[in-house]
């Protein structure tokens, strides 16, 4: 295999693995703020117990997120040196801002969140929790801005020609608020909130099935369901707005997402289907006119088809189509499931239906699948460009890196990440089996150190 | 924002230097603690004390590397691209070491089994030792010079990076970090653990001073472009004198039982070492050997003036805030380490 394929595989593998964790950190960050805020407001000790339990899970996801995130930052330089030279002027400032504004905030206050329970008062601790959550959200801001610039470049000009050409910033704010950044940021964050919320729901529902930690479990499921529902609706709205942006700014990507061949009005929206690129047809279940209506608010609006995109500027069509439809289908299913859960809660039957509880437990996989499929769709749909219409992925490689070197690093990453994943699942499972600690049931204004008596039983 | 006639390229040369100096000072003691982890203490609770001495802060310390890397990417993309792709295998090995170091801290005490803890102890110590060595080797190569082609691409090989001068710099860095970490631990521990660590301090100081003397001699003899910088600007020696005094002050403070002052001296020595390194290198970020005209400098490899200006604004807003809350967090976690429920 050549360096291009290998480097793309390595990037896909490392970023996919990395992206299992930041959504959990961002989502759990928000939930920790909610839970700890409720603890301060209601003084109900169960919220303190929840905050402690979820803080430990947060720490676990955060550690792997940081370790695998460092890889991403280095990989731009190691494998994509030409790209780094090309976009450094634009992309670099977003990355530097991410370090200064997001990572320092997150990791600094994480110290207080994890180890500061008996060092600072409850209010200062709550402040630290808010800062960690804010830092996690900021980190999404800058990286999504940078990625959105690769989708819809703005606020730049090209300097130099041929191999020495590169993009330079002309307007910093136009770069930050490029046409797709705000929609994509909203959509990404909403997906992250769902990842956190569904983890909380899943663990709570599992305890309900096992009839353990009932109060902890019910409150986890309820808070999780509210956040999942709100974030789910927000995901749908921001996704719609994002797709309208894609229709306008990246017609090739939208055409691939929907397997849309001819530029024509009354374009259909596929619920599921298969694109045959040989015969240039798309088969499946579709709603006529809906794509035109969703993209432009009018069934008579014309949507650009793949026939009007030069063949060497088309992304992999069926692959993009399937990724996009997996994201939409899973996202919709999660909304339905959250609605079912909320309805059962209203009727007071939340803890009774085993089917519902099992579905809620498995729900944790949903946001992970949808988040990954969505990012894959966004990145595959932009091909063959690494920076849309400016730089091709095939021109972006490091010139001095050989296939053997990439194979070596691939093997290294696969081994290390397999180990990390196994350890993560093992520790998460033992944390869940162990359950929340009853000694964490404390009121915010009683002397906190009383909560730290000698530990009963073992940590396993 | 406009910065008038300010030489933004030089300003960013300094800022990138400051960020990496912050990294070596802060993560330096974390890595040093890791280097000592297997050798200095053996009981499980003692090892936990070592881990928890850096527990609340190592994460934030590593962010200095992330930010330094980000700043290098933003300010000098050509350097970032050439160094990271050129040192491919070395950087991948560094990543592997840093990953193991990071997750070992988080995972080690999460399970009581002996084998589990031993595995993560080895990961933590091995990851720390290897990271320190590689950081030193990378610095050594930048000082010595690496082959750069006319188009700015790296033109050497991985094996070529492992020459004696770079390896010497690697060993010196390990000694420096281990010394720095030991002093930090003396400051953060008490009783028997402290007594055990104290036995390591003086041998490590001696090891570092020997390595440093050897590196200096080798630099004077074999790295003419750095010697030349000092010959051209003799006032650079104004910096070397306090550096020597700071290093000499470390054993003095240790024998006076003042670990905090010793730690400050050690930090100050690292600032001095990085400053001397920066002055010797300026304006080169990557010195090209054998063709110095291909060197990547703060001027031929920088981003546009516009970007350097925007980023200076970001840095001027962000860095003081970062320093303020980092200092308060160190203040909150001051004093000796004690194990309790939320510890690693």
Structure description:
The complex is a heterodimer of chains A (460) and B (344). Chain A is mostly helical. Chain A has one domain (3-451). Chain A has helices at residues 3-18, 22-42, 45-79, 81-115, 122-151, 172-176, 181-210, 214-249, 251-258, 290-296, 317-347, 354-362, 365-380, 403-434; strands at 156-159, 166-169, 269-276, 281-287, 385-387, 391-392. In chain A, strand 5 (385-387) and strand 6 (391-392) form a beta hairpin. In chain A, helix 7 (181-210) runs antiparallel to helix 13 (365-380) and helix 8 packs antiparallel against helix 11 (317-347). The longest helix of chain A is centred in the middle third of the chain and has 36 residues, at 214-249. Chain A is globular, with a radius of gyration of 24 Å. Mean pLDDT of chain A is 86; it is low at 447-460. Chain B is mostly helical and 344 residues long. Chain B has one domain (8-332). The longest helix of chain B has 33 residues, at 8-40. Chain B is globular and about 55 Å long. The model of chain B has no long low-confidence stretch (mean pLDDT 88). The chains are: A mainly alpha (460), B mainly alpha (344). Chains A and B meet through helix 3, helix 4, strand 2 and helix 14 of A and helix 3, helix 4, helix 5 and helix 12 of B.
């Amino acid at each position: 295999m050549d360096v291009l394929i290998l480097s793309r595989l390595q990037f896909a593998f490392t970023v996919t693995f990395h992206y299992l964790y930041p959504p959990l950190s961002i989502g759990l960050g928000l939930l920790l703020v909610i839970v700890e805020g409720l603890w301060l407001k209601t003084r109900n000790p169960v919220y303190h117990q929840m905050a402690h339990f979820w803080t430990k899970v947060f720490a676990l996801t955060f550690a792997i997120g940081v370790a695998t995130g460092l890889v991403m930052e280095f990989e731009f330089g190691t494998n994509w040196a030409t790209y780094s030279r090309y976009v450094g002027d634009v992309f670099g400032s977003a990355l530097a801002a991410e370090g200064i504004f997001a990572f320092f905030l997150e990791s600094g206050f994480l110290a207080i969140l994890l180890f500061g329970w008996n060092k600072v008062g409850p209010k200062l601790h709550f402040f630290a929790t808010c800062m960690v959550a804010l830092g996690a959200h900021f980190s999404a801001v800058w990286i999504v801005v940078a990625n959105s610039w690769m989708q819809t470049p703005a606020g730049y000009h090209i300097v130099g020609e041929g191999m020495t050409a590169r993009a330079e910033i002309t307007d910093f704010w136009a770069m930050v608020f490029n046409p797709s950044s705000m929609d994509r940021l909203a959509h990404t964050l909403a997906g992250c909130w769902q990842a956190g919320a569904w983890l909380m729901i899943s663990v709570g529902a599992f305890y309900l099935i096992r009839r353990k930690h009932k109060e902890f479990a019910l409150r986890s499921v309820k808070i999780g369901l509210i956040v999942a529902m709100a974030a789910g609706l927000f995901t749908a709205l921001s996704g719609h707005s994002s797709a309208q942006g894609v229709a306008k700014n990246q017609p090739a990507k939208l055409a691939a997402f929907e397997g849309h061949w001819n530029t024509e009005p009354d374009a259909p929206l596929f619920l599921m289907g298969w694109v045959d690129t040989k015969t240039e047809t798309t088969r499946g279940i579709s709603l006529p006119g809906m794509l035109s209506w969703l993209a432009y608010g009018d069934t008579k609006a014309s949507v650009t088809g793949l026939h009007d995109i030069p063949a060497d500027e088309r992304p992999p069509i069926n692959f993009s189509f399937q990724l996009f439809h997996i994201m939409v289908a899973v996202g919709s299913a999660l909304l339905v499931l959250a609605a079912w859960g909320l309805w059962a809660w209203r009727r007071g039957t939340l803890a009774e239906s085993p089917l519902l509880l099992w579905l809620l437990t498995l729900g944790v996989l949903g946001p992970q699948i949808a988040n990954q499929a969505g990012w894959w769709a966004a990145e595959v749909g932009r091909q063959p460009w690494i920076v849309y219409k400016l730089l091709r992925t095939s021109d972006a490689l490091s010139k001095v890196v050989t296939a053997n070197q990439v194979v070596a690093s691939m093997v290294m990453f696969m081994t290390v990440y397999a180990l990390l994943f196994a350890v993560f699942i093992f520790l998460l499972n033992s944390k869940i089996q162990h359950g929340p600690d009853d000694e964490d049931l404390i009121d915010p204004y009683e002397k906190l150190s009383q909560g730290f008596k000698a530990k009963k039983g073992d940590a396993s | 924002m406009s910065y008038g006639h300010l030489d933004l390229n030089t300003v960013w040369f300094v800022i990138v230097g400051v960020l990496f100096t912050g990294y070596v000072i802060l993560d330096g003691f974390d890595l040093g603690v890791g280097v000592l982890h297997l050798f200095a203490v053996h009981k499980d609770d003692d090892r936990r004390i070592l881990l928890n001495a850096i527990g609340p802060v190592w994460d934030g310390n590593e962010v200095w590397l992330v930010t330094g890397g980000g700043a290098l990417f933003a300010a000098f993309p050509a350097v970032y691209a050439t160094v990271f792709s050129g040192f491919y295998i070395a950087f991948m090995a560094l990543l592997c070491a840093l990953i193991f170091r990071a997750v070992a801290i988080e995972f080690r005490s999460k399970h009581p089994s002996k084998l589990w803890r031993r595995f993560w102890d080895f990961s933590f110590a091995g990851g720390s030792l290897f990271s320190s060595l590689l950081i030193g080797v990378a610095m050594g190569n930048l000082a010595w010079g690496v082959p750069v082609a006319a188009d700015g691409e790296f033109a050497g090989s991985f094996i070529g990076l492992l020459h004696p001068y770079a390896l010497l710099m690697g060993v010196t860095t390990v000694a420096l970090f281990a010394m720095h970490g030991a002093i930090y631990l003396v400051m953060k521990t008490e009783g028997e653990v402290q007594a055990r660590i104290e036995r390591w301090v003086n041998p490590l100081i001696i090891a570092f001073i020997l390595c440093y003397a050897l590196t200096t001699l080798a630099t004077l003899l074999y790295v003419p472009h750095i010697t030349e910088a000092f010959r051209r600007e003799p006032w650079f020696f104004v910096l070397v004198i306090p550096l020597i005094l700071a290093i000499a002050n470390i054993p003095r403070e240790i024998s006076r039982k003042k670990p905090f002052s010793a730690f400050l001296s050690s930090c100050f020595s690292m600032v001095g070492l990085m400053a001397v390194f920066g002055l010797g290198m300026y304006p080169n970020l990557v010195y090209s050997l054998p063709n110095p005209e291909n060197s990547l400098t703060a001027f031929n490899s920088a981003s546009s003036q516009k970007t350097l200006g925007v980023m200076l604004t970001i840095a001027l807003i962000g860095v003081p805030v970062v320093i303020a809350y980092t200092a308060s967090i160190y203040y909150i976690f001051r004093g000796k380490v004690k194990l309790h429920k939320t510890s690693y």
